[in-house]
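USER:
Try writing one entry.

ASSISTANT:
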Amino acid sequence: MVEFKELIEAALGKRRLSIFFKNVNLVNVYTCEVYKSNVGILDDRICYVGEDNGFEASEVVDGKDMFLIPGLIDSHLHIESSMVTPWRFVEAVLPHGVTTAVADPHEIANVLGVEGVKTMIENSRGLNLKLYFWAPTCVPSLPGFEQSGAEITAEDVVEMLKIDGVLGLGEVMDYSGVVNLSNRIMNIVRVGLSFKVPIDGHAPMLKGRVLNAYLTTGVEADHENFTVEEVVEKARLGIWVKIRRHLAESKDFIMAVKSSGAASRLILATDDTSPDLLVERGHLDGIVRSAIENGLDPVEAIQAATIRPAQHLRLYDRGGIAPGKLADLILLKNLEKFEIVDVYSNGKLIVRNGKLIVQMAPKFFPEWARRTVKTADLKVEDFMVKAPVQRGSARVNIIEVRGFETRLREDRLPVENGFIQLLNYALAVVVERHGKTGGMAKALIDGLNIKGGAIASTVAHDSHNMVILGKSPFDMLKAWEALRRAQGGYVAVLNGEILSILELPVAGLMSEEPVEKVAEQFREFRRAERKLGLEEEAPIPLISLLTLPVIPHVRITDRGLFDVDKGELIPLIKEVNV
């Protein structure tokens, strides 16, 4: 890092600059203006912003009236959702203008605990993107109702907050535990408050007294937003409201938030971005682009991806173009279309004409992080629903899937030879895969339209047990065998044949292959899903969300069916008749 004495000399024209940008349209995120300016860089810092052009520099960049903006800052993401490891993730997102990002590694923490978080952080060191981390707070997401590979305690959070690069508390998903004063989550929140670090939130559909109670813990931001009303209420209560891709792509939402006055509290963030989506539609830049296309002022959209997240994260040395700030800069060809040309990180050109021009040495995970699928041995009968009678009928609870939502309903189904006949329903089986209990649970699923075969995944939020969904017990067994052999990933099977497999051997969540290769394999899996009759538009396959017990309304974990609204496990079979 350059000394401020040298920066002073450079700003006064007494020292040769590293880079001098001239003839740029400066996007000023402090005053919400765009105007002609020149910008001087010394090593990794900005030292001059203004009209003076009487500087000597080792390199002069003629902006030719392009737009100069700060590097993008993503304040909430999960690297594991890209299905590649940190160094592969960095090489994928740098061309999209992201120069700072904060990842919540609670996915790998659910598999490998604090050691998994540490190896994730180590894998991110020395890269051209400044990658920071949140300390996971809710591992598992709902203690007592799911079996994860590890459990994060308050003592673990203290340990993680002392690691260089860990900025604060990751999303506090156990909002029920907060408002009901659960000792576990309250002790974790107290750690965050004692360290005086930012606390990230997770408060879907909370409102009124419950939302107020949740926010008294010091939560400063929330990314779980679905309606204008939610956004407005949270903005009025003073927190940063993080907007993901699905809202940025809604013109009705953008216009409504603009008219409400809540736009000044918006932060744009990616959260979960699958590899195919990253390759096809970009990263944080894609969300900025969508927000602009749908009516958000371009400068305000850029503020929501630069200065506001910097303030939220307390990274005051970046997020804007001003003397003393880090020289993280983007040259845009067009402001409204957000066309990225060049990207500078720490004053170094790393992306030219949209292409990464620096090479990063490979950084591999240790072998112990590749041996995490430890399920009990299974047989065909494990993928059938046994009834307590040989013949008759059974009244059963059903998970009805409609888009992102799940609803609970019931149906009466025939029993033959001691097994419930599924009729038009699919069967979901969740198998504990961390070698802890060997437990498993089953649920009948309606609404996914799977017509045959099976799919399976070890990406099953948040505890990441193995989930197998299908109509054929034989294909479900084959899918389980394939993922146990591959040590994780996604697979589709039909009539005993593997149609597609995406191997994710690092913690059963990530690959060390380039993101383009992983994206193509993931697209193949989605095509295989459609071959089985599954039609879904969600960027995350719904099989991976069936297991998340902190989103409404009913889910399935390795412990059983879980009624999210009531906060309790419920039986699959309600009654039987002979």
Notes: The chain has a mean pLDDT of 96.
